[in-house]
């Protein structure tokens, strides 16, 4: 039997559930999942196996109207990921329907021409009645000629297997690009930084929106099989440093414990995690920070 392999881009508005779907498809946590919008910055690829097919997922940042340099670089990364893919899956939320944001994405897809296979996945179907779903399915397919439509709940797993099976069969024939046991093409240093950033996002909620980034500065393999990981949390202002540290250092301690536990589970070994907080007022304007996130600094130019 011949093998198949190709790239699948998941696109949609922020918070549509792309990261949750990617993790469900791959069967492991490779993209951070939070309830805050715009948490996915880099084009994180997850690799899923289905029969003789290897599906390489490009999890793009949510598509939204960009204001800052970082926003513009994220949106450019999203469309770049879609352009490179064999199949595009547009993910929308069942309870929100055909929003202005989704309409803008459909217009952009039409402008790009009909050379790409685009499927629709309506997510969070457990939140609406079946007649609402039927009406939304009809409305979406009248708005754009999707090749397939899937009704799913990425969080609960409904419909995910059906979508993965279809993708596996629709990809072009060809050799696999990654070893069988590889889940992501992101370096572990970046995955580790994303895990810490997720814990910060969850812990800080509205206090510190997107003015921070995490970088893994050092990764040391120890003789006993454990790993020492040193990370720096960059914030834009002095005031933010106090928020990240918390009263008596309690916030950073809780974040460190949660990130370490998840890293140990992911790596299946002991981890010694050390976090530092540094103020870099202009990190949003530094090209080096963008390359750490897998983004192109130049794409941030308006």
Automatic annotation (TrEMBL):
One biological process term in Gene Ontology: ribosomal small subunit assembly
Lipid bilayer topology: Peripheral membrane protein
Ranges where the record places region G2: 38-42
Region (G5): 152-154
Keyword Membrane applies: yes
Location(s), subcellular: Cytoplasm; Cell membrane
G4: annotated span: 123-126
One of the record's GO cellular component terms: cytosol
GO molecular function annotation: GTP binding; GTPase activity; ribosomal small subunit binding; small ribosomal subunit rRNA binding
Domain annotation KH type-2: ranges: 204-281
Region annotation G1: where it falls in the sequence: 12-19
Pfam families in UniProt: KH_2, MMR_HSR1
Region (G3), start-end ranges: 59-62
Positions of GTP binding: 12-19, 59-63, 123-126
Primary localization: cytoplasm
Keyword Transport: no
Domain Era-type G: 4-173
Keywords per UniProt: Cell membrane, Cytoplasm, GTP-binding, Membrane, Nucleotide-binding, Ribosome biogenesis, RNA-binding, rRNA-binding
Complexes and interactors: Monomer.
Function: An essential GTPase that binds both GDP and GTP, with rapid nucleotide exchange. Plays a role in 16S rRNA processing and 30S ribosomal subunit biogenesis and possibly also in cell cycle regulation and energy metabolism.
Family membership: Belongs to the TRAFAC class TrmE-Era-EngA-EngB-Septin-like GTPase superfamily. Era GTPase family.
Protein name according to UniProt: GTPase Era
GN (gene name): era
